[in-house]
């Protein structure tokens, strides 16, 4: 394993505030918010980041890895500036998520799970995002776009390029 | 006690016991994977689901492992819902299982195999491709055959609850879930190999017991671990006079369901030792192999020469904490009756490192199994006393029960023993001590011994031999009797149970102890009977 990773001073303060929310015997409950903090800090949650969170909580690092590998929204590899996740569960598939994904893939010139060479975009598929009545849906970073079509994808990308 | 109903039959069982154990007491087997009596119930495998009356006349599905018996509970173990559930769970568990029983080391003692036979479908409806994740090296002793794992999490809970080291976890999600260690933190604790014992399938295996003969070929021998003064109860698996595996044997008062890795694998050191195949006698300054009568003549005449010299008794005897109570007792008698009240000592190697797990399982610093028993039998003085006696010339001859392959001599001891006029040693290989002796009798290793030992708590427990000593060697008790006979002393019969009877009559704290009372769980010295001391 590489050298131990430590939070910056500012992030450490935020971590302390997160830990304060939980009683001492339930410190482990802080694992998800602390992993979010780690992802904000480093863009993705590497094993070194998991070990850093484990040290803060005072648990075995594999117990943090259990959580970090369970939730797909924790990035375990470096990602681009913008993460685009197309929902591919049944209702979105029926409303045409396939063409949305193909369009994105063609526009960006990358396949599933890949990141553009300039480091701007990462393309993913996602499990259900709980907006089945408005499919197909696309998650752009932390913002959900509904009723997405190839045309709407172009608009979103233009917006992001400007951004 | 509580009265419960199972399939319309009434039973009386212990209140508060969990349903799986209570049913087992009644001889009813509730199939399960994740529940283990040494661990807290988890209810994750869903195999033990039964029906319980939750409202009058209304039954609901419950996990038996988490149900604590209360008076009046009413269960159905064989209703269609229960049987269907089992069949369904078996089918789920086998979705990604490779069914590689023909070359899996667990075959024959595999819960998945047994339950599949009893409750499975007999054929698979699964047409999709099975996941084939690679096997993983988890630590120095354990390999994970990832494909075979059913994720019951006994191993992760063992590392959380028993050792407190938490090296194992379940990573990933859904069908990709796997048991894993964290990068750079292998499964490396002093009890790690227990996870292979409790794994209900062939997923976790020890590297030591891999591709070995099938488990149904072995003779099983209940004995004790010779690795430390805790005296873990063990079962050896033996084939063609060779030990292939040691497993812990349940004894709540001593080791619970567990044993340490050091003890589990220590049989290799003993089994691979370069054993003495015949007695040795010093001729022209060199040890040479001789016949038993020749060695006996040499030993007896040497001892007699020392006894004929000045002083009350110039002979000393040194017992061994590797030897049984019976052997040490016979040594005491031999000393008292043939050597005339000799000075007595006890041979023991230096202490190792003690360790206590989170659950209270204790590895003793004393790396020999019978220090307490040997002391009780011999009333032994300190090793320093023997060295002083040799130094000041009051001890000129010494009779030593050796037999510890891990024992090396300090330079001080080497100097002292070299000064002796005559040294007789029982040993199992050419140890430092044997090299200094005038006569060496080849004795037995702990796995060849029959008798009792007393652990650090004062619990007297039985050893049984896995196989006899090599053809040229003898059990140490028999050698002592032979020497006694040659010196005109009758040390009695050869049966350790008979010697124990004599010990019960003569040694403080051992009154009333018999082989029957000791049984397979041991009995406390001091007449307390079987104790309720906490186990691991």
Can you describe what's shown?
The complex is a heterodimer of chains A (163) and B (536). Chain A has helices spanning 9-20, 31-42, 47-57, 61-70, 90-94, 97-108, 150-162; strands spanning 82-87, 121-126, 138-140, 143-145. Chain A is of the alpha+beta class and 163 residues long. Chain A folds into 2 domains: 9-70, Arc Repressor Mutant, subunit A; 82-162, 3-Layer(aba) Sandwich (Glutaredoxin), CATH 3.40.30. Chain A has a 4-stranded mixed sheet with strand order 2-1-3-4, with helices on one face. In chain A, a hairpin with a 2-residue loop joins β3 (138-140) and β4. In chain A, α1 (9-20) runs antiparallel to α2 (31-42) and α2 crosses α3. Chain A is elongated. With 536 residues, chain B is of the alpha+beta class. Chain B has 3 domains: 2-93, Ubiquitin-like (UB roll), CATH 3.10.20; 103-108 and 127-213, Alpha-Beta Plaits (2-Layer Sandwich); 280-524, 3-Layer(aba) Sandwich (Rossmann fold). In chain B, 27% of the residues lie in helices and 21% in strands. Chain B has 16 helices and 25 strands. Chain B has a 7-stranded mixed sheet with strand order 15-14-22-21-20-16-17, sandwiched between helices. A 5-stranded mixed sheet of chain B has the order 2-1-5-3-4, sandwiched between helices. Chain B has a 3-stranded antiparallel sheet with strand order 6-7-10. In chain B, a hairpin with a 2-residue loop joins β3 (49-55) and β4 (58-63). In chain B, α9 (325-340) runs parallel beside α10 and α9 (325-340) packs across α15 (496-506). The radius of gyration of chain B is 28 Å and the shape is elongated. The two termini of chain B are 26 Å apart.
What is the topology?
The complex is a heterodimer of chains A (163) and B (536).
Chain A: H1 9-20, H2 31-42, H3 47-57, H4 61-70, E1 82-87, H5 90-94, H6 97-108, E2 121-126, E3 138-140, E4 143-145, H7 150-162
Parallel strand pairs in A: 1-2
Antiparallel strand pairs in A: 1-3, 3-4
Helix pairs in contact in A: 1-2, 2-3, 3-4
Chain B: E1 2-6, E2 9-13, H1 19-25, E3 49-55, E4 58-63, E5 74-76, H2 80-93, H3 111-119, E6 136-137, E7 142-144, H4 154-162, E8 168-171, E9 178-181, H5 194-198, E10 204-206, E11 219-224, E12 233-239, E13 242-248, H6 261-265, H7 267-271, E14 280-283, E15 286-289, H8 292-308, E16 315-320, H9 325-340, E17 343-347, E18 355-356, E19 362-363, H10 371-378, H11 383-391, E20 397-401, H12 411-419, E21 422-427, H13 432-436, E22 439-442, E23 451-454, E24 459-463, H14 476-486, H15 496-506, H16 515-518, E25 523-524
Parallel strand pairs in B: 1-5, 16-17, 16-20, 20-21, 21-22
Antiparallel strand pairs in B: 1-2, 3-4, 3-5, 6-7, 7-10, 8-9, 11-12, 12-13, 14-15, 14-22, 18-19, 23-24, 24-25
Helix pairs in contact in B: 2-3, 9-10, 9-14, 9-15
